[in-house]
């Protein structure tokens, strides 16, 4: 049952990524969402996090802003609401739904929040890792989505990378240190 539900939610999120209304373009699916899922799979045991919870949270963490561009600025607030709607529709247990929602609510580096769960910390680290590992997606966001000039975009990406780095737990920093330092040299 869980696998079927996950596949259905994955299809819904991927379709939202492919929609013309998605301001990030389809590449957010391949260059961010799937990478965050991959990173949660890699990190779950490091955080003693429930792999099922972090995988669903990774799948849904940016869904609100993908679905509706007006929700982008506060997608950490709207994301849990959208996740709850989908998870309820598929009969996911309420206690686990709450854990997914909590992880989504605390995943952003630009919003100072305390992680209340191992799953929230795992998702936040996986999301930050994806920013460091997928610098081209940040460049796209700066130059295409935000329509920034070269210097402004460079500074925006650099600041985003630095926030992401600060969000990482020290042992996770060790996993991506070379990529982080290389990205900063390029910028």
Shape: globular
Ranges where pLDDT stays below 50 over 5 or more residues in a row are none
Total helical elements = 10
Class of secondary structure makeup: mainly alpha
Number of domains: 1
Rg from Cα: 16 Å
Give me the CATH fold name: Hypothetical protein af1432
Q: Helical proportion? A: over 70%
**Number of β-strand runs:** 0
**Residue share in β-strands:** under 5%
Distance between the termini: 46 Å
Q: Return the average pLDDT rounded to an integer.
A: 90
Could you say what the CATH architecture is? Orthogonal Bundle
Note the topology.
Blueprint lengths: L1 H17 L8 H21 L3 H10 L2 H5 L7 H15 L4 H12 L12 H16 L1 H11 L4 H18 L2 H17 L1
Helix pairs in contact: 2-3, 2-7, 3-6, 3-7, 5-6, 6-7, 7-9, 7-10, 8-9
Question: What would you say this structure looks like, in words?
Answer:
The structure is a single chain. The chain is mainly α. It has helices at residues 2-18, 27-47, 51-60, 63-67, 75-89, 94-105, 118-133, 135-145, 150-167, 170-186. The chain has one domain: Hypothetical protein af1432, CATH 1.10.3210. Helix 2 runs antiparallel to helix 3 and helix 5 (75-89) packs antiparallel against helix 6 (94-105). It has ten helices and no strands. Helix content is 76%, strand content 0%. 44% of the residues are buried.
List keywords for this structure.
187 residues; mainly alpha; Hypothetical protein af1432; globular
């Amino acid at each position: 049952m869980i696998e079927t539900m996950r596949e259905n939610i994955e299809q819904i999120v991927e379709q939202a990524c492919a929609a013309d209304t998605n301001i990030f373009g389809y590449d957010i699916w391949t260059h961010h969402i799937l990478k965050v899922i991959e990173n949660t799979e890699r990190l779950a045991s490091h955080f003693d996090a429930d792999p099922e919870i972090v995988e669903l949270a990774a799948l849904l963490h940016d869904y609100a802003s993908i679905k509706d561009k007006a929700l982008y600025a506060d997608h950490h607030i709207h994301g849990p609401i959208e996740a709850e709607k989908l998870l309820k529709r598929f009969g996911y247990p309420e206690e686990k739904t709450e854990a997914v929602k909590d992880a989504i609510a605390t995943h952003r580096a630009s919003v100072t929040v305390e992680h209340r769960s191992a799953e929230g910390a795992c998702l936040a680290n996986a999301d930050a890792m994806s920013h460091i590992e997928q610098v081209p997606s940040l460049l796209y966001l700066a130059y295409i989505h935000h329509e920034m000039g070269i210097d402004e975009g460079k500074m925006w990406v650099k600041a985003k990378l630095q926030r992401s780095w600060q969000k990482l737990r020290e042992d996770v920093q060790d996993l991506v240190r070379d990529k982080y330092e290389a990205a900063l040299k390029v910028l």
